[in-house]
Amino acid sequence: MDDRLKASIWQQYGAALDTLDDALRLCPDHLWTVQLWNDDEDARYGQFWFIAYHTLFWTDMYLTGTLSGFNPPLPFIKGKLPETPYTQEQIKNYLDQCRAKGKAVIEALTDEQAYRICTFDWMEPTFLELQIYSLRHIQEHAAQLNLVLGEHGVTGQDWVAQARDKA
């Protein structure tokens, strides 16, 4: 796969993760459990911390390319809410892991890997399309989290044009 194309994909994927990272960094403790929306199944699904975790769980899984056999790293639990919310530090560490994994996966992408079909109940995209889908998912939830921060008077959010160099 063309190196310039992979670099372009990473720049935007990384920018989406950096936007989410900004929301996590700016979130004061008292907003960590603020509810963004009501969820009939469990109110915690609409809380700031869970939306951040949800975003990273799916980012990690989409970088793997399959739900079958996928498990997030400890202390995270697949398919079950923890007794207490994950901490900001735990979520931030997961974001850092996803960022490193995303950069490595995209940099190593071959044509064969990019065009393999990933099968889910709701779609059958190529692996490359799945990464674009994931980028949109990250950006959607990062925007929601940044919006709620702004609604509560938190400032510091800004547009991230390209992935920040974390070296």
Distance between the termini: 24 Å
Assigned CATH architecture: Up-down Bundle
Q: Helix fraction?
A: 40-55%
The low-confidence parts are none
Question: How many E-type strands?
Answer: 0
Query: How are helices and strands ordered from N to C?
Result: HHHHH
Can you describe what's shown?
The mean pLDDT is 96. This protein starts with a helix and ends in a 16-residue tail after the last helix. It has a single domain (3-151), classed as Four Helix Bundle (Hemerythrin (Met), subunit A). With 167 residues, the protein is an all-alpha fold. 54% of the residues lie in helices and 0% in strands. The radius of gyration is 16 Å and the shape is globular.
Provide a brief overview of the structure.
Helices cover 54% and strands 0% of the residues. By secondary structure, it is mostly helical.
Defining traits:
globular, Four Helix Bundle (Hemerythrin (Met), subunit A), mainly alpha, 167 residues
List the helices and strands and how they pair.
Elements lengths: L2 H24 L21 H17 L23 H20 L3 H4 L12 H25 L16
Helix pairs in contact: 1-3, 1-5, 2-3, 2-5
